[in-house]
Amino acid sequence: MQDEIDPYREFEFPAETEKPKQRFHFVRKLSRKTYKALNLASPISSILALVLTVSAIFLGYPVYKNFSYTDPKHDGYVAPRSPGDIVDIAQRSTVTIICKVNEDDFLIGSGWAIDLPTSSKAFKTSLITNHHVIKNCIDGKAELIVIDEEFKEYLAVIDVYDVKNDLAKLSSTVKLEPLQLSENMPYPGYWVMNYGAADGWIGSVAFGAVLNFINSEIFITANTSEGNSGGPLLDNEGKVIGTTSWIKIDEQYNGAKSLDTMCAKILKCEYGKGKRYWE
Questions:
Q1: Most Cβ neighbours (<10 Å): which of 7, 102, 105, 184?
Q2: How far apart are CA 90 and CA 81, in angstroms?
Q3: Structure pTM?
Q4: What pLDDT score does 141 carry?
C-alpha cells in the first residue's frame, strides 16, 4: 500500500535554476557600436560620394562630348569606330565578277549586293557592277561568272545596263546580304573605303577620303586598281555612296560613280525629277 500524502506538509519550492548564459553578447555589442559609428560617418560619406560624383562628371564630360562629336552617324569626316567592322560588312556583300571569253580573254571586276528584285525566282541576289566589266557578256558570247569570298562560282545574268553611266545590274544565284545605301551626300574630306578584287586580288581593302564630288562622280584618294571596278565605295558607317569605276594613272586620285547615276536606269529616285538620289 502506497504511503498517503500528507496535505499539511509544507510545500517545497524547486531550487532556483541557474540563468542561461547570454549567447553572442560580444556580437550584439559590436553591432551596436558599428551602427553608432555608421550614423556618425554617414554625413561624411555622403559628402565624399557627392564630391566623387561631381569630379567624375567634370572629368568625364569632355570625353563624352568628344566621343559624341566624333560619332560616324553625325560626322562623315571621322574614321569609323572599328574599321574592321566596315571591312566585314563589305566582305559579306561583295563578289568578284568575271566576263570570260576564253582562258586568255576575260575581264575581271567586282560587284556588290543591293536590295532590289532579281529577274526571276531562280536567283537570290541582285548585284551592281560596271558596264565595262560585263560588256563582252551582253551578247551571250562570253561566260559571266560570280565568285564569292570562298572562291565558289555562281551563275549570273545581266538584267539592266547603262552605257552612259557605266553601270549594270545583275541577278545571281549567290546569296548575299545587301548593302545599305547612304542617306548622306559625300563631301570633300569624308572618310571612304574601297573594297574589291584589286588587280585580281579578291578581298582587297583601301582607305582614303573624298577628294571632291560632283553629281555623277566622286573623286577619291583611296588606292584603286583594275579589278576594283564595280566594287562598293563605303562611308564610315559601312553604307554605299558610290560604285568604284575608274583610275587616274597620271594623277593621285581615282573615281567612283555616285548613287545619283543609278537613278537613270537602276533606281527609282525621289529628287531632281527622279534624276538624283540625294536631295
A1: 184
A2: 16
A3: 0.77
A4: 85
Amino acid at position 126, single letter: S
- The rounded mean pLDDT for the chain is 87
pLDDT in tens, 30-87: 666 666 665 665 666 667 766 677 666 666 666 655 555 567 888 999 999 999 999 9
Q: Which residues contact 199 (CB under 8 A, 6 or more apart)?
A: 225, 226, 227
Question: Residues 147, 100: contact at Cβ < 8 Å?
Answer: no
Grouping H, G, I as helix, E, B as strand and the rest as coil, residue 91 is helix
Distances (CA, A) of 74 to 78, 187, 188, 210, 236: 9, 13, 15, 17, 10
**Residue 76 identity:** G
Residue 14 backbone dihedrals phi, psi, to 5 degrees: -65, 150
User: How far apart are alpha carbons 122 and 77 in whole angstroms?
Assistant: 41
